[in-house]
Specification:
single chain; mainly alpha; two-stranded antiparallel sheet; 7 helices; 4 strands
C-alpha cells in the first residue's frame, strides 16, 4: 500500500523530493536475508525471537547509513520499533479481540500458543507497538498492523515517490 500511495502521490503532485541514495543497503539486505533464512531453516523455538528481532534491527540500522532521506528514516524507525517489541516480548503482540473479529482461526492459534511469531497483547511490554491497528485495504484482506508497519509503509511510499520523480526528472531533461 505504501508503494501505491507513493506512485499516486508522485503522479498527482509535481513535488520532487531529495534524491534517494540506496548505495549502502548491505546491512538491510543482510537483515532481510537472515529473516528469510529463519523462515526456511528450522530454528530452536527459544532462539527464534532473538534472531527475528536481530534481523529487524539490522534492517533498520542499515537504512540509517548513507545519504539521509525521509523515506529511509521512516522505514528504519519502523524496523527498529518492530525489532524492539519482538525482542522484549519474544514475539509480536497482537490484539486478539480485534483479530478475532475478522480472523477467528488466527486468533485461536495465537491464543493457543501455536504461532511462533505472534502472541497475545495481554501483559505485553510496550503494547502500543504491537499489531493493534486495523487495516482493510482495497488490494488485500483485513490485517492488523503495528505502528512500525505503518512507518515502514510511509517510508516505502516516500522512497517510491522519490524514485519515480528521479525517473521522470531524467525523462524531462
Amino acid at each position: 500500500m505504501g508503494a501505491i500511495c507513493g506512485i499516486l502521490l508522485r503522479l498527482f503532485h509535481r513535488q520532487f523530493y531529495a534524491h534517494v541514495a540506496l548505495s549502502v543497503p548491505w546491512w538491510s539486505l543482510g537483515g532481510a536475508g537472515l529473516f528469510l533464512f529463519l523462515l526456511w531453516v528450522p530454528v530452536p523455538h527459544d532462539l527464534w525471537p532473538y534472531l527475528h528481532s536481530l534481523s529487524l534491527l539490522v534492517m533498520g540500522q542499515g537504512l540509517f547509513w548513507g545519504k539521509f532521506h525521509p523515506g529511509k528514516f521512516f522505514m528504519a524507525l519502523g524496523f527498529l520499533a518492530n525489532g524492539l517489541v519482538v525482542f522484549l516480548n519474544k514475539a509480536m503482540p497482537v490484539d486478539l479481540g480485534k483479530l478475532s473479529a475478522f480472523d477467528p482461526q488466527g486468533a485461536a492459534l495465537i491464543s493457543g500458543g501455536k504461532v511462533l511469531t505472534h502472541r497475545s497483547l495481554d501483559a505485553a511490554v510496550l503494547p502500543f507497538l504491537g499489531d493493534i491497528i486495523y487495516y482493510n485495504g482495497p488490494f488485500r484482506p483485513p490485517v492488523l498492523m503495528s505502528g512500525g508497519d505503518v512507518l515502514i509503509a510511509v517510508g516505502l511510499g516516500l522512497i517510491v515517490t522519490t524514485l519515480i520523480s528521479q525517473l521522470l526528472e531524467g525523462e524531462e531533461s
